[in-house]
Amino acid sequence: LSSKVGGVLEKYQGLGIEALFLLQIATAAAAKHYRWIEMSLQAEDNEKAGMVVKRLGAMDYKRYRLYKLPL
After folding, report:
1. pLDDT value at 32 more than 90
2. Exposure letters 17-53 (e unless 16+ CB within 10 A, then b)
């Protein structure tokens, strides 16, 4: 399952919403007998997302770097 998910607004972070969000995704995936979930849209400087990955015991194998150029 490839899931390009969004995030939680900063004022609501740390309240457990992230955990409920991930639990819902994992529960739905398990019900359909998926064996893994790929959620790779994670910026390299997003430390909070990295902590979630570690807490879940998941493999952090890919991150994205954003560049800004004046047009």
Report:
1. yes
2. ebeeebeebeeeeeeeeeeebebebbeeeeeebeebb
